[in-house]
Amino acid sequence: MSEHISESISFVHSMTLSHGRNAEVWDTTGKRYIDFVGGIGVLNLGHCNPQVVTAIQDQAAKLTHYCFNATPHDPYIRFMRQLTEFVPVSYPLSGMLTNSGAEAAENALKIVRGATGRTAVIAFDGGFHGRTLATLNLNGKVAPYKQKVGVLPGPVFHIPFPSKDNGVTTEQVLKALERLLSVEIDVNDVACIIFEPVQGEGGFLDMEADFAQALRAFCDEHGIVLIADEIQSGFGRTGQRFAFSRLGIEPDLILLGKSIAGGIPLGAVVGRKHLLNNLARRHLFRQPDWLRCGPGLAGTND
């Protein structure tokens, strides 16, 4: 590959890409490929989508960078208005942008701790929520992400993921949850439960709708925040805008990323206003700049 690139970076394919268009890419020898990778769930709109390209060009011609924390700017405000209208929930949404999906997950952990005064998190076997140190805790497997790295100390617990495709039933997971809360952690210490409606790293498993509804009722009963990680499954990838819609529930927080801006790095946390408005200012990560909000507007334009 190159002596200037870390050997710790793995490559699935050996060719070197030159350019792409829609669902196709070309390597540096001119050979054409149909792209079934799509940036790992990033390019729902395809390579070089004209609306996304135009949005980038228009924004770059006006201003390339300005941090929203320093001075608010119109593209961020317009994008958040459009994004909160795009997410199909019945309650009024608030939110914030991040630089990636992993940052969205990190901020969500801060948000729920601040809102609930609790620290424990329940996640699922096979789940994936990022590669930062905090999100490594949430991931439901050791290899390859936790190997030789370890995780930050913190009360994170895992239970099985119910799906027809892995043979794990709703009843089995509810029993595992009951055992967890009787043996390892007090339910009153649990701040949130985080799940993917469709696990990607876990083997493209659909969560069972009856379990999701039981989980929603359980969280309501015990004051636990329910977080849906739609970073990979969102923005039409499953046939609906967001995969949680088919489960018949509404999460309290929703994590977004990947296809949110047509391939430009961007993430978001959206959810109930009382949760997102609870932290003291400056607790949350620096906000994405002007340039990335334009592609975000294009990516959520019906």
TrEMBL record:
Keywords linked to the UniProt accession: Aminotransferase, Pyridoxal phosphate, Transferase
Entry-linked InterPro entries: Aminotrans_3 (IPR005814), Aminotrans_3_PPA_site (IPR049704), Class-III_PLP-dep_AT (IPR050103), PyrdxlP-dep_Trfase (IPR015424), PyrdxlP-dep_Trfase_major (IPR015421), PyrdxlP-dep_Trfase_small (IPR015422)
Keyword Transferase part of the UniProt annotation: yes
Record field: transmembrane: none
Cofactor: pyridoxal 5'-phosphate
A molecular-function term among this protein's GO annotations: identical protein binding
Secreted recorded as keyword: no
Family recorded in the similarity comment: Belongs to the class-III pyridoxal-phosphate-dependent aminotransferase family.
Name under which the protein is recorded: 4-aminobutyrate aminotransferase
Upper taxonomic lineage: Bacteria, Pseudomonadati, Pseudomonadota, Gammaproteobacteria, Pseudomonadales
